[in-house]
């Protein structure tokens, strides 16, 4: 199985001329030519359930949500919705319950900007399944990935986790000069070395607290559980804004 973790960045990426948009398009084109996925399961750090239950959207259409506020008007001209793979969504709920995972059907969300921005550049036109994270442990989200993989057996399903490994918005607002964080250095080193078990332990470190990874990196842990990777390939890395980094990784 193949999985991707790709940072979606600030909504301003929609109008900025930055290389990350080209990278997303190129990665999407390559995956489509190699794998030809029929469905993308997306895990966004902005779809978070505080009830402790993972919510799986089961409505026919996953509508675009512009969940960002106070930005220039031009950013609200952009939106992307997608058809839901309802059959797979319900199979994931069923498999999750059998595995003892707290999971339930939902129809109150859609595609937030952490989902629809990368999807619009990488996999336009494909069906999507949208699943929430919780504030639970890396192990819980790894198990969620395993459940998604089980439910996807025999189908061409790709998983896409999004978010920024370093997400210090105070640095962004204060205009701090962009630079690579110690956390990013360590994370990428572990990825290159295939030390995925050690990545699961990063929340116990001081540098984790300093980096404030978006969504607690739970989308990444879900991708790891889905793929159970032998290797990771770093496709791109950037720090376009102070305090916020961008990372793209392919897992196999």
Automatic annotation (TrEMBL):
Its cofactor is Zn(2+). Coiled coil: none annotated. One of its GO terms (molecular function) is oxidoreductase activity, acting on single donors with incorporation of molecular oxygen, incorporation of two atoms of oxygen. Residues 4-243 form the Extradiol ring-cleavage dioxygenase class III enzyme subunit B domain. Keywords: Dioxygenase, Metal-binding, Oxidoreductase, Zinc. InterPro entries: Extradiol_dOase_DODA, Xdiol_dOase_suB. It comes from the Archaea. Belongs to the DODA-type extradiol aromatic ring-opening dioxygenase family. This is Dioxygenase.
